[in-house]
């Protein structure tokens, strides 16, 4: 009785784990199968023959490669600009003494309470009047306006002791110098979490890029995948390869940065 | 002193300005603009015309609005309890001391980082009748049924809830896990000395300690579930018919297929007000309950 309970206790988490990663494993195996294979026994997906020609095919398909590079470009630029503007604002709120500080901080909090989906229509209208629809600027700029980063970084900057800042000022350091050489290096863990979180958010963002891109050379991967898959109906080997291509960078990133990703989620829990 | 403050103002401006500009343009301005648009017959193809509260009156009498709101509410009612409870179970499993602990955490969380397009097409290909993995697996183990996972309205909802559960539950699990690790060991030690069983430890220490984070997760989950759209659009496109069409998809179609941006903005505001009321109710429930205990 005791023994069977112990076995159950160890088996259950294992079985659930397998169920959770199974679709991803299956995707990777399907992407390694030669095209045009009629497979009726599902276990055959996992058995040889394997081939990398699907990947060659996808990389040689200029369109998919372009979408991949777009996603990469938009993700990296969004992340870098987000880090710069949010850390600058957080530094001002945490370390500079100015009027209406409380008011500004509360003003920044408002944005957290309004769900982005509720303002998509007016945002589209604004982007249209600014003539940034169907452009990289339109893909990037609205993504950097989230105040969550400011709030997380502010609480991090608050823990830098006042004395450190004051003695640096005595030595004639400019505020920007203090921001750049003292406060930022101390906040590296928070910056890393925000960076990874922003990048994943941008890499996976679907609705906004789907709404504002019309030219297929501007598509990001999440927008391109449905287009590619609906034009391709022979079997699902090539569509699954596109899925794999857009997931593998994230899966690799996940193994390297699991800690930071997990921390980033705990931050977003604070937000609630 | 006064001079110092004013010089502080000037010094703060270059630091605040970049974020401030982007934030006002792309977060605050849309909120105001949306309210303005809701009072207009605002179309891409026709001339814009002020119509007062007409959009709001139309919304209250629009059966499609209420139907899609009802679908979304049903989805929230079915998915939220499973989403919170399964997240708690996974967190407990992944918190147990085991050689495979890191593997469990990683596996439960991994689907969360995939893009909505990827998980939607994974679902489509797995659930396809005749050639999908699930049905051919059923045949393999001797069940010769051919369920059309995405065709009947009920089964389509089951599929959508299942896929969303698999995709997003890891996020809630991480929040529970962080809270589990914050429970101080001495609480368990003390109870063990008093001879508490494992079940008693769970009921009297673990569960009460998790209630605050559980409430946050519940609120976040309700808000997130009301915004469901992309995976439905990709998997069933709201079908069969409009039986799985959620509110955001109806707003989207009104704006971009029927070009009625004013009415779409009005419904966005309607949704926003509903979410706001739900948040306030939930937060109020928390504080009044907190007062009792």
From TrEMBL, chain A:
A Pfam family reported for this protein in Swiss-Prot or TrEMBL: BPD_transp_1
An annotated GO cellular component: plasma membrane
Gene Ontology biological process terms in this record: transmembrane transport
Protein name: Sugar ABC transporter permease
Taxonomic superkingdom: Bacteria
PROSITE patterns, alphabetized: ABC_TM1 (PS50928)
Subcellular location: Cell membrane
Main location: membrane
Stated family: Belongs to the binding-protein-dependent transport system permease family.
Swiss-Prot/TrEMBL keywords: Cell membrane, Membrane, Transmembrane, Transmembrane helix, Transport
InterPro entries: MetI-like, MetI-like_sf
Domain ABC transmembrane type-1: 68-257
Transmembrane segments: 12-32, 72-91, 103-124, 136-157, 178-200, 236-257
Membrane-related topology note: Multi-pass membrane protein
SUPFAM superfamilies: MetI-like
UniProtKB/TrEMBL annotation, chain B:
Topology in the lipid bilayer: Multi-pass membrane protein
UniProt key word Transport: yes
Main location per the UniProt record: membrane
PROSITE patterns xrefs: ABC_TM1 (PS50928)
Domain of life: Bacteria
One GO-annotated biological process of the protein: transmembrane transport
Transmembrane segments: 12-32, 69-94, 106-127, 155-180, 201-224, 261-281
InterPro entries: ABC_transporter_permease, MetI-like, MetI-like_sf
GO-annotated cellular components: plasma membrane
Database matches in PANTHER family: ABC TRANSPORTER PERMEASE PROTEIN, INNER MEMBRANE ABC TRANSPORTER PERMEASE PROTEIN YCJO
Protein name: Sugar ABC transporter permease
Organism of provenance: Pullulanibacillus pueri
């Amino acid at each position: 009785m005791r023994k069977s309970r112990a076995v159950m206790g160890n088996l259950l988490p294992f079985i659930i784990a397998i169920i959770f990663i199974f679709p991803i494993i299956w995707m990777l195996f399907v992407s390694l199968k030669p095209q045009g294979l009629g497979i009726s026994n599902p276990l055959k997906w996992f058995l040889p023959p394997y081939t990398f020609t699907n990947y060659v095919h996808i990389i040689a398909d200029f369109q998919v490669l372009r979408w991949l590079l777009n996603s990469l470009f938009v993700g990296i630029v969004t992340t870098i600009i987000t880090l710069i503007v949010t850390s600058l604002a957080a530094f001002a709120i945490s370390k500079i003494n100015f009027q209406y500080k409380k008011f500004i901080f509360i003003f920044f909090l408002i944005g957290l309470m309004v769900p982005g989906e509720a303002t998509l229509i007016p945002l589209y209208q604004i982007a249209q009047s600014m003539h940034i629809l169907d452009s990289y600027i339109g893909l990037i700029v609205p993504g950097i306006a989230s105040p969550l980063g400011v709030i997380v970084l502010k609480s991090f900057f608050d823990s830098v002791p006042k004395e450190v800042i004051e003695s640096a000022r005595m030595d004639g350091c400019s505020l920007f110098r203090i921001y750049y050489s003292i406060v930022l290096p101390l906040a590296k863990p928070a910056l890393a979490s925000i960076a990874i979180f922003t990048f994943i958010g941008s890499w996976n963002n679907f609705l906004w890029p789907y709404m504002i891109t019309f030219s297929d050379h501007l598509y990001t991967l999440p927008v391109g995948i449905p287009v590619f898959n609906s034009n391709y109906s022979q079997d699902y080997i090539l569509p699954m390869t596109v899925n794999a291509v857009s997931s593998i960078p994230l899966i690799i990133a996940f193994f390297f940065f699991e800690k930071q990703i997990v921390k980033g989620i705990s931050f977003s829990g604070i937000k609630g | 002193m006064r001079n110092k403050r004013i010089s502080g103002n000037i010094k703060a401006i270059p630091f605040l300005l970049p974020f401030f500009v982007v934030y006002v343009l792309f977060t605050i301005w849309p909120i105001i603009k949306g309210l303005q648009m809701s009072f207009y017959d605002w179309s891409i193809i026709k001339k814009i015309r002020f119509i007062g509260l007409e959009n709001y009156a139309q919304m209250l009498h629009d059966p499609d609005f209420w139907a899609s709101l009802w679908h979304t509410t049903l989805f929230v009612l079915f998915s939220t309890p499973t989403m919170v409870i399964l997240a708690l179970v996974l967190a407990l499993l992944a918190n147990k001391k085991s050689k495979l602990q890191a593997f469990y955490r990683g596996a439960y969380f991994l689907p969360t980082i995939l893009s909505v397009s990827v998980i939607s097409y994974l679902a489509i290909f797995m659930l396809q009748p005749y050639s999908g993995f699930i049905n051919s697996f059923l045949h393999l183990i001797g069940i010769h049924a051919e369920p059309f996972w995405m065709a009947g309205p009920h089964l389509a909802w089951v599929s959508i809830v299942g896929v969303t559960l698999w995709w997003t539950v890891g996020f809630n699990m991480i929040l529970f896990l962080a809270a589990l690790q914050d429970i101080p060991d001495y609480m368990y030690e003390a109870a063990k000395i008093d001879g508490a069983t494992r079940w008693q430890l769970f009921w009297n220490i673990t569960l009460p300690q998790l209630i605050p984070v559980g409430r946050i997760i519940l609120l976040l989950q309700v808000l997130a579930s009301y915004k469901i759209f992309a995976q439905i659009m990709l998997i069933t496109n709201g079908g069969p018919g409009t039986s799985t069409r959620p509110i955001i998809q109806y707003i989207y179609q009104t704006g971009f297929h029927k070009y009625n941006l004013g009415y779409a903005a009005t419904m966005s505001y309607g949704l926003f007000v509903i979410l706001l009321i739900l948040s306030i109710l939930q937060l109020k429930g928390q504080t009044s309950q907190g007062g009792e205990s």
